[in-house]
Amino acid sequence: MVFAVVRAGGRQEKVEVGSILEMNRVVADDNGNVTLPAVLLVDGDKITSDADKLAKVTVTAEVLEDLRGPKINIIKYKNKTGYRKRQGHRQELTRVKVTDIK
C-alpha cells in the first residue's frame, strides 16, 4: 500500500495511484500532466517525512478536465439604511487523476 500526502492548490490531499481529486485550477504541461509536491510518503510500513528525501519523490497526475465549483452567494445587508449588496463567486477547479508515485 503506497500513498502520499501532496500539496494541491493550497490544501493537503491524501492520494494513491488511481485516485481522482479536485483542486484549484492548475496549468498542465504539453502532455496534459501535473507534478504535485509531496509532503509525506507512506510505502508499506516505511514513512518518509524528511524534506531532502521528499524532494526526490514525484507524484504525477493527469488532468481530466477544467471545471467550475458551485455558486456561492455573498449577501451584505444593513438594517434601516437601505444598504444591500449581492455578489456571487464560482471557484475555478481542475479534476486530476493520480497516475504515478515514485
Descriptive notes:
By secondary structure, the chain is mainly β. The chain has one domain. It is built from one helix and ten strands; from the N terminus they run ββββββαββββ. The strands form three sheets. It has a four-stranded antiparallel beta sheet. The mean pLDDT is 96.
Strands, helices and their partners?
Layout (H helix, E strand, L loop, with lengths): L1 E7 L2 E5 L4 E5 L8 E4 L1 E6 L2 E3 L2 H4 L4 E10 L3 E7 L4 E7 L2 E10 L1
Antiparallel strand pairs: 1-2, 1-5, 3-10, 4-7, 5-6, 7-10, 8-9
Features:
63% strand; rRNA-binding; single chain; 4-stranded antiparallel sheet; mainly beta; 102 residues; elongated; 1 helix
Structural class: mainly beta
Beta-strand residue percentage: over 45%
Mean pLDDT: 96
Which runs of at least 5 residues are low in confidence (pLDDT < 50)? Answer: none
- DSSP helix fraction: under 10%
Distance between the termini: 13 Å
Number of strands: 10
Q: How are the strands of the biggest sheet laid out side by side?
A: 2-1-5-6
Number of domains: 1
> How many helical stretches?
1
Gyration radius from CA atoms, angstroms: 19 Å
Give, in order, the helices and strands.
EEEEEEHEEEE
Structural shape: elongated
The largest sheet is: 4 strands, antiparallel
